[in-house]
Structure formats: structure tokens, C-alpha cells
Amino acid sequence: MKYGLCTLLVLAGAIAVPTAAQQATDADCSATATQATGYTPGASTGPDGGRIRGAAKGAAAGAAVGAVQGNQYDNASGALKDANQQNKARSGAAVGMAAAGSQNRQDRRQGRQDQDAWQKSYDTCVAQKGSGAPK
Predict the structure, then answer these.
(1) Cα–Cα distance measured from residue 40 to residue 25, given in angstroms and rounded to the nearest whole number
(2) d(CA 55, CA 59)
(3) Nearest CA to 97 among 69, 57, 61, 41?
(4) Are 66 and 87 in contact (CB under 8 A)?
(5) Mind listing the pLDDT tens digit for each residue in 83-97?
(6) Cβ-based neighbours of 34, under 8 Å, separated by 6 or more
(7) CB-based contact 118:41 (threshold 8 Å)
(8) What is the pTM of this model?
């Protein structure tokens, strides 16, 4: 029993040392990849409200255009001018939201490219440290 306990402790120590070394390698490689690419995993903030802002900007621009166009027709009734202004605001909101959605998609694509570059840098570092090759 006495030798069994000693053997168990030695075995546990032998298993724990590589795990600690692996954690240090992971931390080192993560820091190296972040420094090399400028990307930090898990730092994504999620939706930023760009579509809502785009819709608001488009609606404001559309309403302004509708107001200017309404001033061109002095003989049109106030209700007709208001309807035209509302129509222009709706169209502007739709265009603004579509433009912001396009920008959001481009940002997500760029984020995936940054993530891929980070992962490649991390994998290279781990492979170098695992093979004992100098970095």
C-alpha cells in the first residue's frame, strides 16, 4: 500500500507537469497570435445597431428631400405634400437600412478573416513549440 501511494503520487505529478507546460504554451501562443494579428478572440461585441442608425439617417434624408420637393408645388394640398414627404422618408429609411446591412456583412467577413489569421498564427506557434523548433 505504501508503494502504491508513492507510485500514484509520482504518476499524478508526471501527468500534471505536461498539462501545466501545455497551458503555458497555449497562453504564450495566444498572446503571440494576438500581437501578430491584432485580433483578440472573444472580444466580439455583437450587433452594433448599425441598421437602426442607417434607417434613421435615411429617413431624415428622405424627409428632407420630400420637404424640398413639396415646396416646388405651391398648388398641391398640404395633405399631398405630407404624403410625399412620408413616402420619401420611408424610401430613405429602407435605403439606409440596406446600406447599413451591407456594411455589417462586410464587417463580419473582415472579422472572420481576422479570426482565421489569428488561428493560423496560433496553430503555427503551437506546432513550433511542440516540435521544439526555435521560434
Answers:
(1) 17
(2) 6
(3) 57
(4) yes
(5) 888 888 888 888 888
(6) 40, 41, 118
(7) yes
(8) 0.52
